[in-house]
Amino acid sequence: MSARTLQRRLGNAGARFVDLVDAVREEQARLLVRAAELPLAEITYRLGYAELSAFLRAFKRWTGSTPNEFRTA
């Protein structure tokens, strides 16, 4: 399926690709951070972020806390 077809079908369903990617990243981030076995740099890489700072901002937006605070809560 072409990118345009996917974009159109998602639009018809009331969704956007960027929102779906963000939701999956959030879910995976919560699972990986809670497991506390991986360093944050590895989690950042696995989720497709180029920089740790971008991941930290996204995580704070999703949860209202830093990954370290989330791990200890």
List the helices and strands and how they pair.
Layout: H1 3-12, H2 17-35, H3 40-46, H4 52-63, H5 67-72
CATH-assigned homologous superfamily: Homeodomain-like
Radius of gyration: 14 Å
CATH topology, by name, is Arc Repressor Mutant, subunit A
Taken together, the total number of domains comes to: 1
Mean pLDDT level = 93
CATH hierarchy class name: Mainly Alpha
The number of helical segments is 5
Task: Tell me what portion of residues adopts beta-strand conformation.
Answer: under 5%
Oligomeric status: single chain
- Just name the CATH architecture: Orthogonal Bundle
Rough shape?
elongated
Distance between the termini: 43 Å
Low-confidence segments: none
Tell me what the structure shows.
This protein has 73 residues and is an all-alpha fold. It has helices at 3-12, 17-35, 40-46, 52-63, 67-72. The chain has one domain: Homeodomain-like (Arc Repressor Mutant, subunit A, Orthogonal Bundle). It is elongated and about 40 Å long. The relative contact order is 0.12.
Short description:
The protein contains 5 helices and no strands. The protein has 73 residues and is an all-alpha fold.
Structural features:
5 helices; Arc Repressor Mutant, subunit A; mainly alpha; 73 residues; single chain
